[in-house]
Specification:
The structure holds two protein chains of two kinds. Helices cover 78% and strands 0% of the residues of chain A. Chain A has helices at 2-43, 57-84, 87-118, 127-148, 152-166, 169-179, 200-238, 245-250. Helix content of chain B is 28%, strand content 26%. Chain B contains three helices and six strands. A five-stranded mixed beta barrel of chain B has the order 1-3-4-6-5. The longest helix of chain B is centred in the first third of the chain and has 27 residues, at 5-31. The chains are: A mainly alpha, B alpha+beta. Chain A binds chain B through residues 45-51, 53-54, 57, 79, 82-84, 117-121, 124-127, 160-161, 164-165, 167-168, 172, 179-180, 182-184, 186-189, 192, 197-199, 201-202, and chain B through 6, 9-10, 13, 16-17, 20-21, 24, 28, 35-38, 40, 58, 94-99, 106, 121-137, 149.
């Protein structure tokens, strides 16, 4: 009984927090994206080697960061949900997956558009490119598990195990450019031991865009989680097993 | 000592992750250096038998080696070097924007009988340094330039 109340009360507390945070996240996303795109496309200088095609970096690199960050959030939520049976953690992992998949897709497409003028190829079977493509398929597989299994708690358990196994790919992506020096993709420019190798005028739009993407993620994941809880509540009501709201409030 | 359900779950997810990590690590260690995207000219020089299929060759475009041959179609000829050996490459086609002497390139093509490489595709590598042109020029003027071209 105590567990049932715990499970039910938590999403309600989430609801009140989400209601306050979503407008703030949405407003931040719009403002940051506006400033970020202004700096990225207009106010920042062209690169000494690449010219204006360097501007693709401001869309591409933060998207790739988010692709890895979303998967890491998914893995942490999955572990929390798996061990402590925490419904919010399960739903956070589930809701993060499609957003992470879109960021990964964006990174792959913008990378391809950037690769053609600079490298001379849309695609190459380089370790970094290949490991990010695998990340994209991991997202799709994870989403497919949730779709394929009707029982939510069972789906959460199986999806969590798959997600945690797939997490091994994340450090491989990060270090692929260091482990296999003979790839095509260049090593890290920002997150490196001896400080960024990007000029400060180019770091500003990069960080603004990264913050904008994070705000977009926060906004979308909270909306998606609210929808998921609403759907589950609706399903319970339809099954006629909804407990009276008063007992929950009392708890 | 019996484990609680929670401890069982911790052991299960931890075990799955540990075993999968171990498997992947073993695969990566076993693959090791064979996951090279390209040969360098030095690698080719050391090979007892020259590869016959399509290969990739990586290295720097040697200084003062790029020439455009006369003929009906413009054929570009340049040397790729890794400091140890050099390989002459010929190519008909559009070179990427970043292609220049001193730049890292990856060339895909076939070795001819005379030891030169007939390129089907030329890819330019670029490094992780980004800066405005004015900054690059200023560094060069001050003699603090550490990059390539």
């Amino acid at each position: 009984m105590a567990a049932a109340i715990y499970e039910f009360a938590n999403p309600q507390r989430f609801e009140t927090v989400a209601q306050r945070v979503i407008p703030f996240a949405a407003a931040s996303a719009v403002i940051l994206l506006g400033f970020g795109l202004y700096f990225a496309l207009i106010a920042s200088p062209a690169d000494y080697q690449q010219g204006d095609s360097v501007r693709i970096m401001y869309v591409h690199v933060p998207a790739a960061w988010m692709a890895m960050m979303c998967y890491s959030i998914m893995a942490m939520s999955s572990i929390t949900g798996f061990i402590w049976k925490h419904p919010i953690a399960d739903v956070a992992a589930k809701s993060t997956a499609p957003i992470g998949a879109v960021f990964t897709f964006l990174a792959l497409v913008t990378g391809s558009l950037w690769g053609k003028p600079t490298w001379g190829a849309w695609w190459a079977w380089d370790p970094r490119l290949t490991s990010v493509l695998i990340l994209f398929f991991l997202y799709l597989g994870y989403i497919a598990i949730w779709e394929a299994i009707d029982d939510k708690s069972r789906a959460a358990r199986i999806a969590a195990i798959v997600c945690v196994v797939g997490f091994i790919n994340v450090p491989i992506i990060k270090f692929s450019v260091d482990w296999w020096k003979r790839g095509l993709h260049q090593p890290a420019s920002v997150l490196r031991a001896d400080g960024p190798s990007i000029h400060s005028t180019m770091l500003t739009p990069l960080f603004l865009m990264a913050l904008a993407y994070m705000a977009i993620y926060a906004c979308l994941v909270l909306i998606s989680m609210r929808n998921e809880f609403a759907e589950r509540r609706l399903a319970r009501l339809e099954r006629g097993r909804e407990e009276p709201v008063s007992t929950v409030r009392a708890a | 000592m019996a484990m609680t359900k929670k401890q069982t779950r911790i052991a299960l997810i931890g075990g799955v992750f540990a075993i999968a990590s171990l498997a992947v690590t073993l695969v990566l260690v076993a693959l090791g250096d064979t996951v090279a995207y390209f040969y360098t000219p030095g690698d080719l020089a050391r090979l007892p038998n020259q590869p016959t299929g399509v290969i990739r060759l990586g290295g720097l475009v040697a200084d003062d080696s790029v020439t455009v041959a006369d003929g009906s179609e413009a054929e570009v000829r340049f040397d790729v070097t890794d400091g140890e050996a050099a390989k002459t490459v010929t190519y008909r086609g559009i070179l990427p924007d970043l292609f220049r002497e001193g730049q890292g390139v990856v060339v895909q093509g076939r070795l001819r009988a005379d030891g030169t490489l007939e390129a089907l595709e030329v890819l330019a590598k670029h490094d992780e340094t980004y800066m405005p042109k004015e900054v690059a020029d200023a560094l060069k003027a001050k003699g603090q330039w550490q990059g390539g071209s």
